[in-house]
Amino acid sequence: MPPRQRPVGTITRGTTNPNRLRRCDRWIAGPQGWRLRRSPTPPVVVDLGYGASPVTAVELHERLRPVRADVQVVGIEIDPERVAAGRALEHEGLTFRLGGFEVPLDDGARPTVVRAFNVLRQYAEHEVPAAWQRVQERLAPDGLLVDGTCDEIGRRSAWVAVEATGPVSLTISLRLRGLERPSDVAERLPKALIHRNVPGEPVHAFLTDLDRAWARSAAQASWGARQRFLAAAADVARSWPLLDGPSRWRVGELTVAWPAVAPASPAAPVPAAAP
To answer: What is the pTM of this model?
Structure first.
């Protein structure tokens, strides 16, 4: 028997809360639901680095079952104690195992979706491409890696969708009630973009234009924040390649093609310490 592979990655802080990832789950079950339905075998969806509580994996299974009743959700954690806590909640269609970015699954199974939320946030920006590639190599045909970040209770979320060929989109999802400006999501951008929200970078230009559209749509606020966001998104769609429409904008969600917001230059690696 070959030696057991050591999990690839670094243990996260583990902070999590019920419903924290509901916005991303809604997107996976909605616009991305075709990936699950198209799978010729029961699709495998991985909750990678789910944290100190297995609640997000449990919720993910509950939210995807209406899309594909035979979906198999696997919670993967690098911390054995967290895996043990998850296994106490296992049932048909939901399992937990030890692992990391190598995404270990039984019988060489390949995941249809890997959701990695608040995992790469603690890594350096230049480490992100290698982590993405590690997961990309494991994806099923039509598979997707979702690399995202959100606040503690899921009011502001952002994620990059990464297919086997590379990143394809950035999605931001906001709780519209009480929203001051859309760029408030900037502090929750995924690691690949969070340090790029500066003048001269495409993602900064995108958020700036979205804020300006939000300001121009202020008159719509008398009809509610939803109508104001719909108007702002329609405004931005005139100059940015949005990949969704009003049905998603209504819930505070907006997806833009990755090439339009990708970093203007590669991340600089951290210099090695002097000997």
So the answer is: 0.91
